[in-house]
Structures are given as C-alpha cells and as structure tokens.
Specification:
85% helix; mainly alpha; 168 residues; 2 domains
Length: 168
C-alpha cells in the first residue's frame, strides 16, 4: 500500500465527513457559551457521532480499489487494517464532533441552533436521520457512476479533439 495514497485517502475521508455534517450554509455569528451549548444539543440531535461511524466504512470501501489497485495482497492487508482504521476513527469521533459543534456555534445564533435541533427532534427530522445512511450510500454510488460517465465522455471527446489536431 502506497503511504501517500493512504494519506490522500484519509484526507479525502476527513473532508467528506466534514462535508456530510456541514451541509447547511453558514450565517454570520460569533461563538458564545449559549450558542456552544445549543450547538452541542444540535450535534446530539443530529446523531453526528453515529453519522461519522456509519459513513466512514462506506467511504473506506469505496476507496479500497484506489488504494489496493486490484492487488490481492494489498486488498488482504487493507481488509486486515480496517478494524484498526475503524477503531482510530471511533476514538477521534468525539474530537471531530466537538469541532463541528464549535463551527456551528460560530456560524449560528443559539436561537437558530435550537430551531434546527427542534427539526431534528421532530418526526420528519428523525425520519431524515434514519434514512440518511442509505441516502448517503446511494448518493455515493450515483456520484461514482456519474463520474465514470463524465470521465468516459471526456476521454472520448479529448481523444477526438487531439486527433483533429494531428495527435494520435
């Protein structure tokens, strides 16, 4: 396994996890103790810790082919390292969730955060949270297929254009 690929994959995972949790547009607000407390309540209502734990294995399995490059030995080692990676992610989840809560507290007022918490504690908010892991997985598959289609079209188009310009 190439260490730089693993490092890139871990960076990608962290970015994707943050993106998954920070899907709302930030408002301008200063962090304060009341907002921080409301943000922590929101993060609990959003089940952010569980979302991280649910998304991480999905992302790792999607990165598996890139990291292992169809090498059976690398795939075996990757699979053997998954429990270690999951354990590390679980250990660091509290830190990650705290940082997300602080970000929300800096960008939303305490009242706004309580309103969002009320949504997540409502029946439709609970349904969204229940469906979210499947939606994220389905979205990832859709994104992967979309990306493959765009890449194939782009390769064909670029090849045609290069040939028009006299390149093989």
């Amino acid at each position: 396994m190439n260490p730089s690929r693993v490092c890139s994959a871990v960076s990608l995972i962290a970015g994707l996890l943050a993106l998954a949790l920070l899907w709302t547009a930030p408002a301008i607000a200063q962090s304060n103790p009341e907002a921080e407390a409301a943000a922590k309540e929101l993060i609990i209502a959003m089940r952010a810790d569980q979302q991280v734990k649910n998304v991480f294995p999905i992302i790792m399995q999607q990165l598996r082919p890139m990291i292992t490059q169809n090498n059976p030995d690398a795939a075996r080692d990757f699979d053997a390292l998954m429990p270690i990676a999951l354990g590390l992610m679980n250990e660091r989840t509290v830190e990650f969730v705290g940082a997300i809560a602080a970000s929300y507290a800096r960008n939303f007022s305490a009242d706004e955060l309580r309103q969002v918490s009320a949504f997540y504690n409502s029946p439709i908010g609970q349904k969204l949270l229940d469906k979210q892991p499947a939606l994220l997985q389905e979205s990832a598959v859709i994104g992967q297929k979309f990306g493959q289609g765009v890449a194939a079209d782009l390769q064909k188009r670029m090849t045609e254009e290069m040939r028009k310009r006299g390149h093989n």
